[in-house]
Amino acid sequence: MPKWAAVILAAGKGTRMKSKLPKVMHHLAGKPMIAHVLDLVTQNRIERSLVVLGHGREQIEEFLVGRTEIVIQEEQLGTGHAVMQALPYLDGVDNIVVLSGDQPLIRTETLAELIRIHNDSKGAATVLTARFENPFGYGRIVKDGTKFIKIVEEKDATLEERAIHEINTGTYCFNVAKLRKALKEITPQNAQGEYYLTEVFDRFTSQGEEIATYCTKDVNEALGINSRVQLAEAEHVLRERILKYWMDEGVTIIDPSSTFIDCEVELSRDVIIEPFTTLKGKTQVAEDAILGPQSTLEDCTCGTGCHVAHSVAKEAQIGPHCNIGPFAYLRPGTVLAEGVKIGDFVEIKNSKIGQGSKVPHLSYVGDSQVGQAVNIGAGTITCNYDGVKKHKTIIGDNVFIGSNTNLVAPVEVGDGAITGAGSTITKDVPAYALAVERSTQKLKENWVRNKK
Ligand code: UD1
Ligand code: MG
Hints:
By secondary structure, this protein is of the alpha/beta class. The protein is built from nine helices and 40 strands. It has two domains: 4-222, Spore Coat Polysaccharide Biosynthesis Protein SpsA, Chain A (Alpha-Beta Complex); 251-435, UDP N-Acetylglucosamine Acyltransferase, domain 1 (3 Solenoid), CATH 2.160.10.
């Protein structure tokens, strides 16, 4: 079996992004561009990958450590020069795939096909091409009939060559031994004064080496990202792919044009996603859940049949058959057991809420542990913060917290206890007790009539 590795070029500046963030660290469908390219490599079971870094390398390195090997290109002297930097690390490798860090839309099956063609042809190189309506800016594939002749860059091309629609995507397979030899011979004598990787093809053809090409059926795969406009275009393409994938897997998406699902989200059959809903990060959703309309969930788990409407949740675990919203805010550390109801204008943070309990309206529950079948009345606040430290509120099973209760933590309310509406609870309430903390109501008979 020939040994393969991937070399990913990512040393360029990305000037047109006008960003302090290196280009390949910009996110697409929830993760950096470069991560999509690395996934493409691992999905094709290529064990080794080397990323060539230069501009903004510190910011990228931090993300890449442990995920790939890093090669530094001190000066960006062109794509050919970038690949040269990786050569010393390729001993024992028979073939490489060269990819660009700013081309994150190539599909697993497309790269697999390119590799298959390369393995079968046993040639020096195999080029992934695409046919563009408007090929401006790209290297053109010059052929004589079907025979590959060379790749010519836009800036070096004749008028006739510029009229060619088949372009170089910048993704290739190379035989490493043949590439080493050809790279020794390239020079920066061209319009941009760079060492072009594409010049190795001139060496190959002059030495009678075989070059194969494979044209992608989906032109979107060749999309390179150089600007924010292209970033948005790529985002759109990826999102559409993700939505189609989940619909094919049995998820109902009422309005794909207003639904945004990150690439690492996992959905189950018969989930329904209502309009204007965003699922981010590693959110996982079980069967029959209904998410939306107008909800954003990030890194959440959603149990079977739960319903989240008009709400925002982050790092929350929502149990089966929970009913969330409208207008709830579930913050990190929220853990809801089965059948919990969190209603309108309720915020939950770092709290566990037991089976069947309800927080139906206008409450803040933070740093709390709430038992089963508890009812928390409207306007209840856990006063968890004394200005310095956070404190815990513990509420047992079957507790009834009256409306507008302030629970001043640390405080504990025992099983089956009741707090009277409007009470500020500062001391623990024993099980089955009633705690009332408010002044006695005064009554002045006929006071209104007498005043007139
Ligand atoms: C390159 C190809 C062109 C192809 C196009 C596809 C060459 C000479 N031309 O042109 O035929 O149509 O890609 O998008 O290869 N990079 C480095 N170090 C460098 C220069 C570039 O790592 O010194 C990296 C960039 O970060 C980028 C990739 O290589 O990820 C491609 O470089 P770029 O400058 O965008 O090449 P193009 O001019 O687009
Ligand atoms: Mg480019």
